[in-house]
Amino acid sequence: MILLAIVQPVIHIWLAYFPPGTIHLAVVDPGVGTDRKIIAGRYNDQTVVAPDNGLVSFVDAEYPLESIASVRNRGLFLRSPVGTTFDGRDVMAPVAAALVDGAKLQQLGPPPDTYKLLDLPEVQYGGGVLVGRVLYIDRFGNCITNIRRELITQSLPALGRVEVSAGGQMIGRLLGAFAHAQEGQPLALLNSMDLVEIAVNAGNAREVLNLSVGDEVVVSYGQ
Amino acid sequence: MILLAIVQPVIHIWLAYFPPGTIHLAVVDPGVGTDRKIIAGRYNDQTVVAPDNGLVSFVDAEYPLESIASVRNRGLFLRSPVGTTFDGRDVMAPVAAALVDGAKLQQLGPPPDTYKLLDLPEVQYGGGVLVGRVLYIDRFGNCITNIRRELITQSLPALGRVEVSAGGQMIGRLLGAFAHAQEGQPLALLNSMDLVEIAVNAGNAREVLNLSVGDEVVVSYGQ
Amino acid sequence: MILLAIVQPVIHIWLAYFPPGTIHLAVVDPGVGTDRKIIAGRYNDQTVVAPDNGLVSFVDAEYPLESIASVRNRGLFLRSPVGTTFDGRDVMAPVAAALVDGAKLQQLGPPPDTYKLLDLPEVQYGGGVLVGRVLYIDRFGNCITNIRRELITQSLPALGRVEVSAGGQMIGRLLGAFAHAQEGQPLALLNSMDLVEIAVNAGNAREVLNLSVGDEVVVSYGQ
Q1: Could you give the 3-state DSSP secondary structure of residue C82?
Q2: Is residue C4 predicted with pLDDT exceeding 70?
């Protein structure tokens, strides 16, 4: 089994690259020490251990939930009582290790009555136009959106003549590679997760285009 | 055995989380190439390989020294003579690897006559007030002090009514979790190492409060 | 076998520290998605998998090429057809893994007709003076040049009286260790790769001396 520790919520695509049985330990946990639960959910024959703050939302939107537990079995924690500021170390990592060691989801605790899902922005379609948003900006300044390849191919006549604008600025045709734009020039491309991404070849799109998470990205069929 | 390579001096708390036999390789070594020694000290049934520049001070203050060697056995080095600018690669890593492979401390060299310990700031107590200092600021801007939980519980009537000020600014009651403060607001809490920490919920305490390493942090019993 | 994934081109020195059979996976690949090839070259009984953009130039200048393949065997790729924006994941990593698993270079594809080598700056010698350049600036601001120890010892009477200037500024004698300069003072030293390096003790040479990649560094025999 593989144990993967991550610090980003965008994991729904990643699951496709990991084998059955992988345990994902996800610790983005500003609510540590409050009464928010910790959950372990199984999707695509893999398990995600995470705080119940919506961190599983992208995975949950992509894959059917196969089984879920609220993490309550103190016998699996590093010690009891645990501290209030680092459940990643004291609770989630030991529980993920127990799962790698063969523990079953039911041993962690009973299923929760509910679990939290974020209100993810949806892509709007109308009048031949798709309107999505910047979801995430990586450390290179590339702006990743929620607009997927199949949404475009299902809605618009052909990928080749699609045009993309971001934050009100026309970027241009959807290109196939960073290097299809001149160095320093903005471009829109379908990235390695099959999502529309706004980038600058050998540059920083966030800075050059002054983009932020949440900004509108529009895909339309070109003239 | 576990081999842990670290770049921070604050390792006395970490030892509690590692199993007996762990080898810690610590390379914060601005004096590389001078005549400063390299030492290997055993504490808590674990071994720390480090330059003799005070890097073991926190561990040494917490655990009794069980045994120590000056690292002189050139047969264990990567080659001989070694260079003068990267003993981490040429000396310390190969020696740590030899220890993982089963070498005994005595094989590294004889015990040193002395080894260097930093003059660590101590927490002062008087008139119902504990005065400590910011020891370390992490990459999120959280300011970690030398004031431990047990020092407070031994000195003051109750944790619940304790008040903390830092750099002359009143921070407030000692909270149990980051999220017990409003977003963007400063707080003092007992962190995951049981040390008083000055933080800003979802923010940067170093910037917001203009704190530096060495700044005074005062814990007193509230009205 | 060891698999090493790297993101810097300066690997010719590193090969000396890895055992025969090591597979180096090098992904600095701004041309991903264009028609640039991917190659796997064997040097010093180790293999470098890399885009054909000159990334192997330093290794190639140091070691004779023992064998080379263009990476074309789609049966080894993650899937076929692969995407156009992350060959590191879809092509190079699976191919490197296949090599670790015992695949032979010939199984990857036929040798390429040519492969790309960068026009590396050479050190000029004349009139008792060596003129090289800053090749790379690390994250501490240390400026690493293309001037090697043996070039100096072969050209000039003695290392001990050599003087170094960088970007038109006299730095001083070639020192043996960072700590041989005062804190905050610039120095020139032979670094852990036996290259002349311009540094500031406990500081940032790029900022203090306003140096950039490509700047001239001059080594001469002192008075």
Answers
A1: coil
A2: no
Partners of residue C6 on adjacent β-strands? C26
- CB-based contacts of C127, cutoff 8 Å, min separation 6: none
Task: Give me the residues paired with residue C220 across strands.
Answer: C129, C163
Rounded Cα distance between B187 and B175, Å, is 7
| Strand B143-148, strand B162-166: pairing | unpaired
Distance CA A208, CA A218 (A): 18
Strand partners, A220: A129, A163
> Whose structure tokens read 């401390």?
B105
According to the model, what pLDDT value does residue A20 have? Answer: 93
| % of chain B surpassing 70 pLDDT | 94
Of A17, A192, A202, the CB nearest to C85: A192
Torsion of CA C177, C178, C181, C186, to 10 degrees: 130
- Specify the amino acid at residue B157: P
B53 touches B24 (CB < 8 A)? no
The answer to whether the CB atoms of B177 and A34 lie below 8 A apart is: yes
Which helix (DSSP H) or strand (DSSP E) does residue B209 occupy? helix B205-209
The lowest-confidence range among A12-21, A148-157, B102-111 is: A12-21
Euclidean distance between CA atoms A139 and C13, whole angstroms: 29
pLDDT (0 to 100) of residue B223? 61
Residue B73 has which token pair? 């056995």
Give the residue-averaged pLDDT of C18-22.
Answer: 91
Nearest residue on chain B to C201, judged by CA atoms?
A: B30
Q: Given this model, what pLDDT does residue A174 score?
A: 92
The Cα of A194 is separated from the nearest Cα of chain C by a number of Å equal to 9
Beta strands in chain A (DSSP E): 3-6, 23-26, 38-43, 46-51, 65-70, 124-126, 129-137, 143-148, 162-166, 169-175, 186-190, 195-200, 216-221
- Distance of alpha carbon C168 from alpha carbon C174, whole angstroms: 16
What is the pTM for the complete model shown?
0.87
Query: Measured between CA atoms, how close is C85 to chain A, in angstroms?
Result: 5
